[in-house]
Amino acid sequence: MIHGIDHTAISVPDMQKALDFYCKLLGFQSIFEAGWPVGAGPLDDLVGLRDSSSKVAMIGFGATRIELFEYATPSPRAQDPRRPVNDHGYTHICLRVSGIQSEYERLRGAGMVFNSPVVDLGPDLCVYGRDPFGNTIELIETKPT
Hints:
Signal recognition particle alu RNA binding heterodimer, srp9/1, 9 strands, 3 helices
């Protein structure tokens, strides 16, 4: 029986930069940091890689958890930081917010790049932006009724 989503995982090229963005800027809390060295056979089997090694961090905000990976081996391919959201693969993480206009301005002031200003979609206000590596993050606020 499936009960729901436990976490979303993102591979990043710089763990400290990812933690700074998600924890310091967005307000997630570190749950744990770990990793594994080359030669950890069961982990190679689990992730489907050979001779893998990685730093790992689990971060959370309320019931939302994100697992961050910074693989050292094998060498990952660079991500296109402007990959369109219609390409196959991870599309976005959506964070529910209050005061979306203030959050948009705060994050934009801190260097986060957005596709547009906040968009009014009727019952919701939303905006798409990117983390430092190009992963898309949506902010959404439901308007009061």
